[in-house]
Amino acid sequence: MKKVAFYTLGCKLNFSETSTIARNFEERGYRKVEFDANPDIFIINTCSVTDNADKKCRKVVQEAMKINPKGYVAILGCYAQLKPKEIATIDGVDAVFGAAEKFRLLDILDENFQPKVDPFTQEKKAEVYYSDIEDALDYHNAYSLNDRTRTFLKVQDGCDYPCTYCTIPMARGASRSDTIENVVKSAKEIVAAGVKEIVLTGVNTGDFGIRNGQREDKFVDLAKALDKVEGIERIRISSIEPNLLTDEIIEFTAQSEKFVPHFHIPLQSGSPEILRLMKRRYKRDLYADRVKKIKELMPHCGIGVDVIVGFPGETEERFLETYNFLSELPISYLHVFPYSERPNTEAVDMGEVVPIKERSKRAKMLRILSEKKRRQFYQEHIDKNYTVLFEDEIHEGKMLGFTENYIRVAAKYDPMLINELKQVKMKNINEQGQMEIDEIETIFEKH
Q1: Residue 368 near residue 410 (C-beta atoms within 8 A)
Q2: With CB atoms counted within 10 Å of each terminal CB, which end of the chain scores lower, N or C?
Q3: Are 378 and 397 in contact (CB under 8 A)?
């Protein structure tokens, strides 16, 4: 029985796909092991959102070769689609799989498991299984299982948005989705495995409903169908574009017992001019309206925001537009990304490049703002009761979990609480920025 190990870089969507591919391997008779357990095969699922992600791929390959120099290393994911030939030159890599080939990985490996050797140099030579991104037309169902307390359920793939900084359409292809029927079927399988929380994920999750280039459903239709599935305790939306976050979705979430009051809404910039240069599909006022609508219906709702700093043309004045806009919004936290140049994107050829040092300075300013926002949000909920899903993660003797509105909670470790939903009273914020709760004896079952 061959041993196979997996390593995932990047987003929740990658994680769901890695988990599904791993289950396929186990069903075929392979034994899944940890990365450091001397596996015969290393599968590395890559990201290419930033230059740092590319460097991480190389680092993981190096570590794999230290663990088992004779191991078979296969690379898939966004980086593999964008730069297959570059990856094939990395020492230790045996095979590279593009977007249209990664779900045929198992069949290909069964036929071509032996590392290829150049007959002249006797060096390993990587095989590249790759098609143009236009050939990535099929939709492949995926969800994570038995890896974390929460399950990431893929409902959509690809993106049709032409954002000038982004390579994802080149790495993932056009927007396409599963059917509502299939997603509901997957949700029932997940529930049967004892999972309490499902996180809906995709490249552009709110664009759910496109099949064969035609829109057949809306995201809110999927949400209403999942809301009826018995046994699901919580459903969380991983991220949704502001122009796709409709009043209907917000109003539905507000009255749903399963969809939690937590939204992660990419902004990218609070400067109208930078939004225009990025070719984002909304204006700043629409974003503010979405946040206002959420807070009117769900005052306790957690709201996360993605922001890019240092985009070409972002003067100090335009950066301050973003900073001040975010400072005034009733949001809960930020994910801050310094802009990084990506080949074959429009932004690479734009003028007014912001120096790297200035990008780092602006990112630091926004991260400090994020911590202030998070602490303020947590402070507003002290002495209130919320439901926590405790996870199998221990930090300094404490077990951690999230409330429905995405407050990070720390409690005294109790193995009986793992993967359990408990209603608790928020007590105080500790030095690590986590919410502490009353003693375990005060915790009572959710009814």
Answers
A1: no
A2: C
A3: no
Strand duo 234-237 + 176-177: pairing: unpaired
Identify the CA nearest to 202 among candidates 228, 226, 237: 237
Distances from the Cα of 436 to the Cα of 234, 378, 399, 431, angstroms: 22, 10, 11, 10
Whose tokens are 């400067």? That residue is 271
**pLDDT > 70 fraction of the chain, expressed in percent and rounded:** 94
User: Which one-letter amino acid corresponds to residue 399?
Assistant: M
- The reported pLDDT for the residue numbered 390 is 92
Of 192, 194, 251, the C-alpha closest to 223 is 251
String of DSSP letters for 116-170: PB-TTT--B--EEE---GGG-------B--SSSSEEEEE-EE------TT--HHH
| 29 phi and psi angles, rounded to 5 deg | 105, 5
pLDDT tens per residue across span 153-186: 999 999 999 999 999 999 999 999 999 999 999 9
CA 49 to chain centre: 11
Give the confidence band of 415 by pLDDT, cuts at 50, 70, 90: confident
pLDDT of 445 reads: 46
For 29, counting Cβ atoms within 10 Å of its Cβ (0-12 exposed, 13-18 middle, 19+ buried), the class is exposed
Q: In this structure, what token pair is assigned to residue 356?
A: 């790297």
Structure tokens at 187: 């949700």
- Antiparallel, parallel or unpaired: β 214-215 and 234-237: unpaired
**CB 234, CB 197: distance < 8 Å:** yes
